[in-house]
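Extended Data, record MBL fold metallo-hydrolase
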Amino acid sequence: MKLGPHLHRIGNDVVAAYLVDTDEGVTVVDAGLAGHWPELLAELAAMGRTVDDVRGLVLTHGDTDHIGFAERLRREHGVPVYVHAADADRARGGDKPKASFGRWRPGALLGFLVYSLRKGGLRTTYLTEVTEVHDGDVLPLPGAPRVVGMPGHSPGSIAVHVPVADAVMVGDALTTRDVLTGRTGPAPAPFTDEPAQALDSLSRLPGLDATWLLPGHGAPWRGDLAALPDEVRRAG
């Protein structure tokens, strides 16, 4: 799906990943589930690109529904995978805290589980090699993505600000579709390690110059970033 001149999405409102397209090549942000690989190839073809045009993959964090095809892209095509240092172990399959489950509705949860299974959620291959990044880094990739630290959902959760795409990809720093309840609109993401810290991290968003806010789960959002933190807190 083309969102803008330099911006594309694969997946859907259940699980999504993003592509930034510039003259220098393509940057991928998040890797969804393993079964999103054919969608990556199809979207690249629609853009007039191939996987050889991908210069790097940036992970917003190391959870399995965001690293799906990352190792395949790295191993088979030599694409470097960038992840915050605090989530590098998680992306390699290390231990993670058991986050609280929170409220849920059977239909929404079943839909998420079925979609995840259909898209290879049980076939996740963890990373064997990553490039660690830190808050404030501007990466040497198409679109010059900047790392914005957003700890809370995980220790190394980040947002990825790409000015040329007029967008910030936030991973699970917040959600616009809760996979456990089906509720839509900006809200705290489920399965968050440190919910209070995640809410505090939202204060980083109003200072960013972007029209599109793109979550890992839910519809793309456009609005006033200055008002967004309070909106998420109210929803929580």
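Summary. The chain has a mean pLDDT of 95.
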